[in-house]
Design brief:
With 208 residues, this protein is α/β, with parallel strands linked by helices. It has a domain at 60-199: TolB, N-terminal domain (Rossmann fold), CATH 3.40.50.10070. Helices cover 37% and strands 19% of the residues. The chain has 4 helices and 5 strands; from the N terminus they run αβαβαβββα. The protein has helices at residues 2-27, 76-93, 107-115, 177-199, and strands at 60-65, 97-104, 120-129, 139-146, 153-160. Strand 1 (60-65), helix 2 and strand 2 form a beta-alpha-beta unit. The chain is elongated and about 115 Å long. The N and C termini lie far apart (123 Å).
């Protein structure tokens, strides 16, 4: 009888302890874990702005010659000599860029090209015999510079086969073509020098 009562008491004690444990667990406040800190996103480095390449000069000379003087019938090498002589002087005497054409350039085409540009001076060169020539070897070099945008005549003048003289020089008959071409090249250089002086652009380039 006593053992039965003792067993019952143990069972009741276990039940009470079990109930208390359950109540204790149910009354415990559930702790919510804090959210994980966000992983910082690396800030992309700003893309460097491309550096603007500064031009040495925005000014440009375009040089051409009217090669269609059929009455004079000069060799094309004469025109080449004058054009390249003028171009060399413009390059060496200023910071302007110089472009040349080996095709014939009429006055109308030169004006049109100048009007279509905002910074290009168009230089038109022509060859003709001097009106007071005593022989067919007296050649003049005429130059006209058309202003950009307007196409108006900015500079005009005349050079001779010897720029050191005030008038034309007669090339002796029998002279070689190469010698005459050299004189024409010098006349072209004289034209380029006078163009720069008239436009107030005589600024020699700084050597690299």
């Amino acid at each position: 009888m006593k053992s039965r009562v003792l067993t019952t008491a143990v069972v009741l004690a276990l039940c009470v302890l079990t109930g208390l444990t359950v109540l204790a667990q149910s009354g415990r406040k559930r702790v919510t874990p804090e959210p994980a800190a966000p992983v910082p996103t690396p800030t992309p480095e700003p893309t460097p702005t491309p550096r603007k390449v500064e031009k040495e000069s925005d000014r440009l000379f375009f040089i051409g010659a009217d090669r269609n003087n059929f009455s004079a019938n000069f060799p094309f090498t004469y025109y080449d000599a004058v054009v390249h002589g003028c171009a060399d002087r413009l390059r060496s005497g200023s910071t302007a860029d110089v472009d040349v054409s080996d095709q014939s350039l009429s006055r109308g085409e030169a004006i049109k090209k100048a009007k279509a540009s905002t910074g290009t001076y168009v230089v038109l060169l022509t060859l003709e015999y001097d009106s007071m020539a005593r022989s067919s070897d007296d050649i003049n070099v005429e130059f006209v510079v058309f202003a950009p945008s307007t196409g108006k005549v900015e500079v005009s003048g005349r050079s001779y086969l010897n720029s050191n003289r005030a008038g034309p020089i007669s090339v002796p008959r029998g002279s070689s073509v190469l010698y005459r071409e050299q004189l024409l090249k010098q006349a072209g250089e004289d034209a380029g020098k006078r163009i720069l002086k008239s436009l107030h652009l005589e600024t020699p380039k700084i050597p690299n």
